[in-house]
Structure prediction request, 265 residues.
Amino acid sequence: MSLAPLRVSLLLVPLIAGCFSQSDGEALRRDLEALKKELAKNAARTEEERVKLQKVMEQATGLLTRNSADLGVQVERMQAKVDKLAGELETRQRKLDEVAQKLAEFQAKVDVKLEGLSSDRKQNTNPPTPTDKEELFRQAQQKLLAGDHQEARRLARHFLERYSTDSRVDRIQLLLGDSYYAEQKFAPAIVEYRKIVEQHKKSASVPDALAKIGMSFYQLKFCRDAESFFGQLTKEYPRHGQAAQAKKVLALIKRYRKNREVCRP
Prediction:
């Protein structure tokens, strides 16, 4: 199964390199608010299309219960109207998914940028970065286990920059995702986990990445995307330890799909 569940080619928002001034921060915040408003607007329009479609279906049901000489013609007209509204609803849902995904991607980029700025400010207080590969790998893992997630990410990114061909790159990539996931920063976690699924398809870390991408989307209330990744996990790795948990979450999504506290429209 491919990464078609994401359904869109995301438009990554460019972030200014170098000095990140207060005005830059304000610009980022304005862009983020604009994306949030667009998401809310599209959600409202999608709900309107759903209501229209429901009314048409109710009219069609009532029509079928009456005897009428021109019943066939009326049914055909009603079906055409239903088909048109269903198409509009699908288009609106697709646009909503695009905006929601762009928002998640944008939030992830902002988190990474702000974290980099914070790291730069503390550069003088950071311990020296190990020059030995094994020590660098060990310290990154140690910092993650100790709950120092930002330092774990700093070391992990140094490892990826210096040793991009190392056989443990997938594990370092998983560590990056786990560091965000542990902080409930699900948007950047998805970005890091996806790199495993896309770039290390035969890695033993793929099932864990699929499970955590699915759970991250679920936490963000993007249930359709969560279903896709959980579905890939249970289909391709049915005996993996996280497959059983994925099936439970899939059942919850199916049960509460219409609950806006659980799933976005």
In short: Residues 71-121 form the longest helix (51 residues). Residues 1-20 have pLDDT under 50 and may be disordered. The radius of gyration is 23 Å.
